[in-house]
Records
---
Amino acid sequence: MRVVMIGTGYVGLVSGACFSDFGHHVVCVDKDADKIAALNDGVMPIYEPGLEALVAQNVASGRLSFTTEPTEAIAQADIVFLAVGTPSRRGDGHADLTYVYQAAREIGTLIDGYTVIVNKSTVPVGTGDEVERIIAEVAGDTPFDVTSNPEFLREGAAIEDFKRPDRIVVGSESERATAVLRELYRPLYLNETPLVVFDRRTSELTKYAANAFLATKIAFINEMADLCEAVGANVQDVARGIGLDKRIGAKFLNASPGYGGSCFPKDTLALTKTGQDADVPLSIVNAVVEANATRKKRMARIVIDAAGGSIAGKTIAVLGLAFKPQTDDMRDAPSLDIVPALQEAGATVRAYDPEAMEEAAKLMDGIEFAEDTNDALEGADLAVIITEWNEFRALNLKQVAETLSDKLLVDLRNVYSASEARAAGLIYRSIGRPDRES
């Protein structure tokens, strides 16, 4: 099939590369000429494990290409995907649909013959209706259908998630369009992947509901971590005890500095705004948004308290800046709250992240960026683990203790146990676990 992907951000680029790997002919379109030039040179705009090789392989096969000019590609396309950004709108938190509607109008002027337009961007309920209206305004008599096909990709594991998904959700009002999408995803039938078809509005809401539920699990276990600290319980054991219940499940039950990234913050906020517009108060989701914001702000205080109440004049080695491992995504990363708070308390921050320092440098001031983990630790008084990259999971703790002047390691991801850290000579502070934890 001939597929056009409008937008070469995280979703568009990963989806386009994977569809081409299925054997479809994919043209990825973006108005950013520099980004397209870089992609044509094999340079990825994001870090995602395996993506560079996947793109190179399918470009070489002739099934994947990149352009700023959509006219010919859209005219020949069977399917056109909208995969443009929908950031939180300044001032009110609603999803900004400017790029979606601009792309819809352009698509409407270029389609030639029956085309399925698929909204893969995360959009509020009813967006598909407006996209359909916009295209109908300019498409004349050209037949088309608008569908919804939300993505459920985890950054750092996106290719695996795309090729082996739990399910494929399609929102369609047309049997003809549904048949086209079934054919598009036919390679996944071998994996017995369920393709579930809803009406378009239900599909749109399903994406928001999924992200809000997962964000709720994170906020919940973080509150349990606070309670565990207060009563002397162990949050990791609590998480295991409830996670073994199949009705609950173990995923997203790791105590942390809070969620971040491209999806959960903006999608939970947009969902609360949808509830307001529909006069349906979403008190649980509102509480999750508030709890997560409070959580991220509280983390610096944990570091300060662990240091005896003051970090003025201290040099802190910060390990990890991205919102999670295996990505360079800094959007709403907990580090964006933690690091400035440490600086405001009088500390000098020397940070290292395997992939996110270039992005972090655009968002943070006054940080010393280290060349590697050892460089970050050298000359520091204490260290803080913010992102649990694999290389931070296998530190030589004895060497860390010998390097840090105050011998203090604050582990905001519970990577280590207190017993092993203390045996190495460290003063150790984790979250949601009592001092006696071993």
Note: The longest strand covers residues 2-6.
---
Amino acid sequence: MFFSKTSLESGIKVVTESIPHVRSVALGFWVGVGARDEIEGLSGMSHFIEHLLFKGTKNRSAKEISETIDTLGGEINAFATKEYTCFYTRLLDEHIPVGVEILSDMLQNPLFKEEDISAEKEVVVEEINLHEDTPDEKIHDLFASTLLGDHPLGKSTLGYVNTVKNFNREGVLSFFSRGYAPKNIVIAAAGHLDHQQIVDLIEKHFAPREEGRFVRKEFKPKVEPKVFICQKRTEQAHICYGTQALHARDEGRFALSILDNILGGGMSSRLFQEIREKRGLVYSVYSYHSLFSETGLIAIYAGTRPSKVEEVIKLIQKEIKSIAEKGISREELHRAKEFLKGQLVLSMESTSNRMTRLGKSELVHREILSLDELVERIDKVTLGDIHKLAKILLAPEKMTLTIIGPAEVKTAANLVA
């Protein structure tokens, strides 16, 4: 694994990884602004602007953007998160100058026409409505907002119907000019490329701007255990149970990945085996963790019949308590390490995954580790590290519970102190 990094005079950072044996290049423009950076009344603006940048520029229409990439056999897309927004394309190596030029154009010369803003507000409202009608997705937003409360990380990335409907061109321009300044952008590329060529193309197509960097206020949330039940007539009850965890640059994040995998990371995990395989109480049960700038979270999801909610929660609590009090076995530790290393190596076969790793590492973790360094960090984790972390994170008195389901699930609130 070989990567190169250049900081341009404009403030943009360019990070690339050369993969000589492939014929494609994945290119991403990573902007360090997301849902957490939206002031009151602007919730969903990062996601909204992500949509708008595909509506056309001073140099090409929305149709021309898509047709150009389609004609080259490539792909172009974007996504917004709580802490960053990414615009990316994947093309044959010979077409990368076109990809750089189009993405640069989109991020520098959007039209933000009134009619496009008006139309896209309706599109995003429908996207929010779809999300609201998908409880196995909605539950995760509900959990984050319940756990983190008024902290900016508790906001929904999509925004809310009442805020999106009130968006206007003035607000869009103001947010864009601050958040999309070159000093807040990382450009990552992986594939059959030459680093200096990418740097030269960025310098050619991305003009310096005077705007200052978007200033993010970072502070740890005050987290207290809570229970929130959203009553909704659903066939299944959707459960999310968890607590605050580590931030993105915490050295303990490698131990957290292993703990997460053992708890609910796959078909051999404790939760899957105990709740699905042995008892058949769920179709889907898993755990996950998220790392942010100053905090993080670890959560367990399960979907079950409303009549089985309390039983499922008790089983989740039992497994959490067991790991926190007794730790894990050497066999579990070995299996989790090998799984993580295997997944890491397999992911490296994709230029898109490599590009994503570079962009996120530079923007969020603020360090880029080689494959050997990552494997070394994973291998260094001990049984004691896992036990210590589990005792700290998985204490029963720290847990937050959220449920979406019919009225009868209300009694489950009694299971959380």
Note: The chain has a mean pLDDT of 94.
---
Amino acid sequence: MSIDQRKVKLFTLSANKPLAESIAKASKIPLSNVEVIRFADGEITTNIEESVRGNHVFVVQPTSQPANDHIMEVLVLTDALKRASAASITIIMPYFGYSRQDRKVKSRQPITAKLIANLLTVAGVDRVVSIDLHAAQIQGFFDIPIDNFPAAPLLASYFKKKKLENVVVVSPDHGGVTRARAFASFFNAPLAIIDKRRPEPNKAEVMNIIGDVKNATCIMIDDIIDTGGTLMAGAEALIKAGATKVYAAATHGVLTRGATERLQASEIAEVVITDTIYLDDSKKQPKIKQLSIGPLLGEAIVHILHDEPISQIFNRIQEDN
């Protein structure tokens, strides 16, 4: 499929340039030049170094740490692109920050996932492309098209190549059961659930394991690994319950507060994540395996430009495995 590159531009901001390069290679759309400028007081501006008039523009920017800076970069560049007469603006936001605040748990709390959706829309974004939103209903917060791609086929493909025996897929909490059940379907495997409670944010206590994991190879599946506390506590509980080996898989490796070092020292045999969030050298550990989502996103851009179904990309992954 050919693309008129004179009418398509691909930009990346500062959050994940290696992923953007992978997307550029897969889509055969070269990265265009944009400069991100920070003033002494922390304000952000951008300088687009080539014309975008009449172009369909794609911008790669997950809103990972520092989340607020990366969100502002997107908003500022979107405003600049609008004022420069871009025909359309698509934000490729593989990791959608603030998504964990998608509802009010207590009174007087914000719903920041909706706030970010509003900010992107008001700034002038025409479409958002994301990977594994924390909750599928976040799509309803947008009044513009949003494509929420699953990473499960890519993660499942990696594990299927290992030819693991007696697999049990484990949801680390009740909220992830739907995700775990879908993941288990790739292996025709049974499902187990870890019953946990959170005494405070970023801390987890395992209360029970629902399901049989004795002599099983367990794969815990989640969308986000932040401090890693949930997975580590879950792995310990699974081993105590008789599991022979425990793997962990997640789409987004936020990995804060020394999480990679703790995961390396944990009972988990391997932690598999995607590159929706850039993993710098300080966070790399032997147990952590990162798979690239870039080729899939690059192909998705081509499908969007040609008004073709995007689901075909993921259906093919399932058929190949």
Note: DSSP finds nine helices and 14 strands in the chain.
---
Amino acid sequence: MEKKKVLIIGSSAKEYALAKKFKEYDCEVFVAPGNARIKDIVECVDIRENNVQEILEYVLENDIHLTIAPSEIAIKNNISELFSANGQLIFAPSAKSAEIALSRSYAKKFLYKSRISTPRFGIFDKPQMAFDYLKNAKMPQVIRADEASNSADRLVCTTFSSAKTFVEDLFYKGEEKVVLEDYVYGHEFTFYIITDGYNALPLGIAANYKFMENNDGGILTSGVGAYVPDYKISKDIENNIMTNVVEKVLNLLQRKESPYLGILGIECVLSDDGNFVTLDFKPFLSDHDADAVLNLIDENLLTLFEACAIGSFADDYESINISDNSSVSCVISSRTEGKVIEGLDLVESDITPFALAKNKYLEFETIVGKNLVLTKTAKTLSRARQHLYEDIEQIKFDGKKYRSDICKQVEKF
């Protein structure tokens, strides 16, 4: 019997992590377009993520059984509806249903209309209106571009002056909308679910580290580290999110005739009083926590994703098996480019690259910004953390940058 063929769409860290996971199964794995690092583990197909018609033609010509599209670009170009219209199995949300995870302004309005608790916010398409709002706004303010992506600009501003300057910069860069939101102090986490659009099951909870510097200082990023499971999130909170966020979201999308199929991340903040607010949505796993979440899933993802795509999810799964292990991840960045990275062969943690370069001697070299995600899985969080940072110390290059306090508060976990 021929092996099933699986095509993954994308070129970032989460697609690399997913390709590694699927290599464990009895199937052939392809990634489009992939990158030089993904090419080291699976076959890459030279088709750009936005060219969904050409991707469909490749799938039809090469007898691909299941296509998985974590790529925001492919989702925006409505790869899901195109494949469904042509009778091809795909694990990805439609562009319409994924708007809650791709447009921050749409997500905030969606949360407000759904009566899901979210911080006070304002959406503006003209600079002066944003300035007027800021004059009376509570500081700090989180200011973001409308596009919800890993590369989107964002900043936490503590003064009117800094907020005004950043808003001006966003409009100057051509942003059509800017979203302002009260900054909420507390514990940030992402609650992941898997759904066929009608039924949903928890997939994992990742504690997030978004700021570049220790103790939540410096620039606000899409994520520089995580740990799973998040022991701060009780079963009561998990049930609360499933009932008062997940069910509301899925029901409203069904009523809009755009059910969401795929993995959905719900970004939240847990405050000191035990309550939580919902900040945002993610259309798949985030780059910085993909390995940490995937390492703990004790299911065959090919079978699981296939069940969602063909409509047998509710019949086949009453729960998702999650191992009792723990994972800690950390993003390693570089201040400079072209520096040879040494020590990778000494590392036992999972290494997932962002976009490393190779020189003529086939040595890995740095790029400016995020270079690697290291993830360690062990029986306890404390052990995973210890081994992770031991491995980080093995990696050496000029300009290395990472947070040293991820999961630092862990003692017995």
Note: Residues 235-255 form the longest helix (21 residues).
